Predict the structure.
Amino acid sequence: MKSLLTAVRRQPAPLLVGLAILTPFLLMSVFPSFFAPHDPLKIESLPLLGPSRQHLLGTDEIGRDLLSRSIHAARTDIFVSLSAAAVAFVVGTAIGLFSGYVGGRTDTITMRLVDVLLSFPTIVLALFLITIFGRGQWVQILAIGLVMMPSTARFSRGEGLVLRSRGYVEASRISGGSRRHILVKHVLPNSLATLLVAASVLASSAVLISASLSYLGLGAQPPDPSWGNMLRSAYGVVYDAPLYGVGAGVCISLVAGAYILIGEGLRRKFRNDRNVGTLSSSIGGL
Amino acid sequence: MTLDLASAEGPSLDGAATPSRGVRVVGALGQLGQLIAVLLAVSLLTFLLLDALPGSAVDARIGPLPNFSPEERAELVASMSEQLGLDKPLAWQYVIWVKNALTGDFGVNYQGIEVRDVVGERLAPTLQLGITSIVVSTIGALIISVFGFRTRWRSIRASIQGTATVLLVVPTFWLGLILVIVFAAELNWLPSAGFVSFSDDPGENIRFLVLPSVTLALPQLALFYRYLDAGLRDTSTAPFITASRARGISERSVVYGHVLPNAILPTITVIGLVAGSLISGLVIVESVFSWPGLGLLLVGSVKAKDYNTVAAIVLLTAFAYVIVAFVIDVVYRLIDPRTRRRS
């Protein structure tokens, strides 16, 4: 127990802070009813009340509890953003590392294809896909994942490109290591630190993109709450209830920020651990 | 803003991937050829996605057309089907579509107005807002990062870094809401939303421009700052900087003559990429402030399922991005000889 505490204390501060912020949100997204004091869809009081003891964040334009709505929104927002980030990360790094390491014509062609996807500005491509394939949650996840995938591929391709000329990779190649062996045993582990940092940036972007889509009215549909559409409603009542959007805005920023902090923490951790043990052991030690 | 840290991987090392030892000109032509190939592929993808529309493409694309009688509409569908070559193979349809797009002909929108005209009148407001924000954020980031780098007060630098990080995770539409609450609702200094064209009233135009451009610029500034700051710190520990200091060169010329130029390099890519994909931020900011630009038009068209307009904007913004990225790549090769090195 004591050694666990010391192990935790030895982690970089941003990582701990990030996890401390993110964990409650993850719990809220899994058990929203446990945390929410009221029913998010039920009209409880007068509309547009300010914060009070009964309604800590006030009520919305038809008298639903804003705190409960913010908590229930975590379910949609966190599920959508994490799934989208996972799609982008897995597909993107697989393509990128391979392409960068292999190089040559394969790399040129792959990167041109990635460039084609990358040429569509993120939100524009997501909006285009939603226009064509409809507004379902899975379309949203795949659309966000797809628009973030090319940048992940480009980024990890850079890693592959850098690592292929490293001494230990060349040594492995000279001693007859197969391409697959080098990619799995040398390139992937050694780029993992950087890639995990990129993954946390991805998760953060995914939160912001999915909130943007629902802000534009193209994400979760009413009456289901989402942080984005709550902020949209907040604009309509900016003169009557200026504090309306605080809950949703703070939630988005905290979650997006938590991922960034975790990324920063991981970056520091890996930088410190570079000389101590292998990378896989330090990830295992998380 | 949605940040694309991952897309800004710094110097593009494409030169390493094309090992041809041939003449430079061939390389340059190859680059241009690749550019054109990417542009064609972008248009092909847009076309194929449009083609994936369920139902009759023309029917879906022209929408309900409330001002048209059923006969007029049927006539339009028939003439458009012929014009788009829908009885011909897909590849031929694509050729027709590209040919029309190149001449700026994207058909009519759901109200029967030429898409070209609808898009055209949105360009000036969008460019005004976008360019203002890029200029503000670039200059701001340069000043703040050099200040933060040179200051002796660690706490000042730490608080700048903290603010920058916070700005990157605050969604643009919330940042905009906060600015509206403070400067429009409470202080009543600036209008909360709307637009007056510069030719009508320059003063009013700028009053309306302030909040949207600041909302758009702040996250960009934070992003540029982070790159500049990281660049400054990385460069300052490089051997050639230590060497400069050891030779007794003044701190001032070390910073402005050696550290800054090298630190700016990767940031140029980031600024370029952000400028190229400004529309992503504009979509949100224009919606927040009812700024009648391309972003607002895009959101409205997506909701109205106005496929022709959406396709035109998608193609236009993607082309803008490709061309901006190409120019950055060329500029980068010119200013940083290291990227010209072949492996």
Observations:
- The radius of gyration of chain B is 24 Å.
- Residues 1-23 of chain B have pLDDT under 50 and may be disordered.
